[in-house]
Write a structure and sequence with these properties.
Length: 215
């Protein structure tokens, strides 16, 4: 057929006593092959309308005119449609599983990039003043206070920041003097410190190409 790539399939329904009614108009490529006489067509699932091809006419340089008649559904066509729907459901399930796997792989890549960058999650991140204080308190242990002034670089802003996050608790001084307050690590602070150390190990492992190390 000349200019075959642009050929069209036009399908018309024949109803006795009425003019032909247009049903579909698509490029030949939409069908893959031109419907032939005797073929049974179903255009829209999950509808139960079926058509039988009665005639087909080739229009030179244009395409094919296909004349169909509606035929009643039968146990045979019903079983075919059920099988088709089952395959669609199976394909949808596989597509969903593959999409989930792709998402997991993408998240793993993102996590790896974060590790290589070395930036910890916000919930456990510590700035340059918070980290030395947390390290000293963690060495001391949970609920074991130290004088605030005994921790180098520990200022009011750092104390307030750690306290807001629930990492430390502040106790009044034994002497009741201003500036003699004591600070201790909370269980939440100990958990965050442990997670930060584990994260740092994973960063080292990722940069060394060994994969994450379990803490």
């Amino acid at each position: 057929m000349a200019n075959e790539t642009h050929a069209r399939i036009r399908i018309y329904e024949m109803i006795d006593g009425e003019p032909l009614s247009s049903v579909l108009d698509f490029p030949l490529s939409h069908f893959g092959a031109c419907p032939n006489v005797g073929d049974t067509l179903c255009f829209d699932m999950p509808t139960t309308k079926f058509y039988s091809v009665s005639r087909r006419y080739y229009v030179r340089m244009k395409g094919w005119a296909i004349v169909v008649r509606e035929v009643p559904a039968s146990p045979h066509t019903d079983s075919i449609m059920r099988a088709w729907q089952d395959d669609d459901d199976w394909d949808a399930k596989i597509d969903a599983e593959e999409a989930m796997e792709d998402e997991r792989e993408l998240m793993a890549v993102r996590d790896e990039i974060k590790l290589l960058m070395g930036k910890p999650p916000e919930e456990i991140a510590l700035n340059q003043w918070e980290e030395p204080a947390m390290k000293k308190l963690a060495t001391r242990g949970v609920g074991k206070p130290l004088p605030c002034r005994g921790i180098a670089g520990l200022g009011k802003a750092t104390i307030n920041s750690l306290q807001r996050r629930g990492f430390v608790s502040i106790l009044p001084s034994d002497t009741a003097k201003t500036g003699d307050e004591r600070i201790s690590l909370t269980p939440e602070g100990a958990k965050a410190w442990k997670e930060l150390k584990a994260f740092r190990k994973k960063v080292e492992a990722a940069r060394a190409g060994r994969g994450p190390i379990d803490s």
